[in-house]
Design goal:
The chain is an alpha/beta fold and 503 residues long. The protein has two domains: 261 residues, 3-Layer(aba) Sandwich (Rossmann fold), CATH 3.40.50; 136 residues, no CATH class. The chain is built from 17 helices and twelve strands. The strands form three sheets. The chain has a seven-stranded mixed β-sheet, with helices on both faces. It has a three-stranded mixed β-sheet with strand order 8-11-10, with helices on one face.
């Protein structure tokens, strides 16, 4: 060893290397030592700034009722006046005539009985983000006087592109209290029960419990987490609590593709697909109304943003989430879409609670079905023409695919006028046409004098029987069907004549 050292020190190059290494160690030690001294100094300074017990002017910082430091989010004068007015209104110290005047437009629409049902309703909103906040705001503005809000999250800057009422001053405060604080300035008589909590199966009994003895009239699911969503929907279905669920508004941009229907029909929505699969394992296949979009992804459209590679390199991706099982990737959201979803949800709740008549259209993405119905109608007209002795070759009908869609969806609400079924539908003449039902005055052209008001919606089996006995036979519709069906057809035909002007 000593011989190696003597050889190394005798070499000039080795001496330079050794000197550099020793210098690096000394410099590194000096830097680390200086950092340690600086750290100790800062710790000592921080400790010195902590007052001893008993010193004067050491009143602890109070938190506001919204969970924020009072000196940071101190309520403004307007907030204080609004809170005082809301407290008085909830005690009954608020003129009922003023409330009715504020709700005047709803009153003339829903009538006194409907508005009274709405004012006495108790609704629970689970999830107070983009969808839930708009639903809550619409319900409060419409007269619902008892609202329970459940959400564990706080308002962030990125919430402001879609939240109904949040402002910059609300960033960092719980969403449930943000909504309450803002809506108290609009409908001070509303009773809010705010639960800054995560909904889960284990807490469902408490979170969905009655409010002052009143069971919930409706529950709104505006959750974007699968576990919580499934737990809520399963609980409501099992306990027969009316519920409506909002499916995914993220990555959506086409408002014409939004529908309200049973969860079993929401086949084009990825969030709904996962929810349906989990619910089916729990024995729930249908019976839950949902708001969903049939919009499909495509080139250039927004998608769930992937995690950067460096995040995967850190280890378990699941540990990156704020809470266990919550997604950690960013979901692109166009701010208008959650608002539309939320307003659709609120609209459904209002109609259901008040008993206002409503019947939703099924999904309109059925072009292939409309083409098939149009072809079947063409074939029926040709068969009738041959029965009357006309040459049916080249026969045209003055009905388009758009006309078919309008009749099926708008006039007959996607159901057979005979049985109410919504599968294997077709259009067929209601009454036997006259002898001059074909126009062949133009050389080379033959058209049937068919009008949209002549057609009714039936299943294929019903239409085959109707064609045989009425259109090609000698029976009248009145002889084949009972009076209730005949009156319904007459009503639908009158509606079509009335709405034809607006098409």
């Amino acid at each position: 060893m000593s011989s190696w050292i003597s050889r190394a020190t005798s070499s000039h190059r080795a001496q330079l290397i050794t000197t550099a290494i020793v210098s690096g160690v000394v410099v590194g030690g000096a830097i680390l030592g200086a950092q340690e001294v600086r750290r100790q100094y800062r710790v000592a300074k921080l400790k010195d700034s902590i007052p001893e017990p008993g010193e004067e002017d050491q009143t602890p910082t109070r938190l506001t009722e919204f969970g924020a430091a009072s000196q940071v989010f101190a309520p403004s004068k307007e907030d204080e006046r609004s809170m005082e007015l809301a407290a008085r209104a909830r005690r009954g110290d608020y003129d009922d005539d003023l409330i009715l005047e504020q709700l005047a437009r709803n009153r003339v629409f829903l009538k006194d009985d409907g508005l009274e049902k709405l004012r006495s309703a108790f609704v629970i909103v689970v999830g107070c983000g983009g969808v839930g906040s708009h639903a809550t705001a619409a319900l409060a503005r419409s007269g619902v006087s008892k609202l329970r809000l459940i959400d564990f999250d706080q308002v962030t800057l990125s919430s402001l592109n879609r939240h109904a009422v949040a402002t910059l001053a609300d960033v960092g405060t719980p969403k449930v209290h943000c909504i309450r604080r803002r809506l108290e300035q609009i409908t001070p008589w509303t009773h809010f029960d705010c639960r800054n909590e995560l909904f889960s199966e284990s807490t469902a009994d408490l979170q969905l419990a009655p409010m002052n003895g009143q069971a919930p009239d409706f529950v709104i699911d505006a959750i974007d987490n699968i576990d919580s969503k499934v737990a809520l929907l399963h609980y409501c279905h099992k306990n027969k609590i009316p519920v409506i669920s909002s499916m995914g508004a993220g990555c959506k941009s086409d408002p014409t593709k939004i529908f309200i229907g049973d969860i079993s029909n929401s086949t084009d929505d990825p969030l709904s697909k996962s929810t349906r699969r989990r619910l089916r394992l729990l024995g729930v296949k249908d019976g839950i109304p949902v708001v969903y979009s049939t919009e499909k992804p495509g080139p250039g459209k927004a998608e769930l943003l992937p995690l950067p590679e460096e995040e995967f390199a850190k280890g378990s991706v699941g540990e990156l989430g704020v809470l266990p099982d919550f997604r950690v990737r960013i979901l692109p959201v166009l701010g208008t879409m959650p608002a539309i979803f939320g307003l659709c949800v609120a609209n459904h709740v209002i109609l259901e609670i008040t008993g206002y008549p409503h019947q939703y259209l099924p999904s309109k993405s059925r072009d292939a079905m409309y083409n098939g119905i149009l072809g079947a109608l063409q074939g029926s007209e040709e068969r009738i023409a041959r029965t009357r002795g006309f040459d049916s070759q080249g026969l045209k009908i003055p009905i388009t695919q758009d006309d078919v869609g309008y009749l099926i969806e708008e006039v007959y609400n996607g159901r057979s006028v005979i049985s109410g079924l919504f599968t294997r539908l077709c259009l067929v003449r209601w009454e036997r046409p006259g002898e001059d039902f074909i126009d062949n005055r133009t050389p080379g052209q033959k058209n049937t004098l068919l009008q949209m008001k002549d057609l009714v919606c039936m299943t294929k089996e019903e239409a085959a029987k109707h064609e045989k006995e009425v259109l090609k036979g000698d029976k009248s519709p009145e002889a084949l069907y009972d009076a209730k069906i005949v009156d319904l057809v007459k009503l639908k035909m009158k509606e079509e004549e009335k709405f034809e002007r607006f098409r």
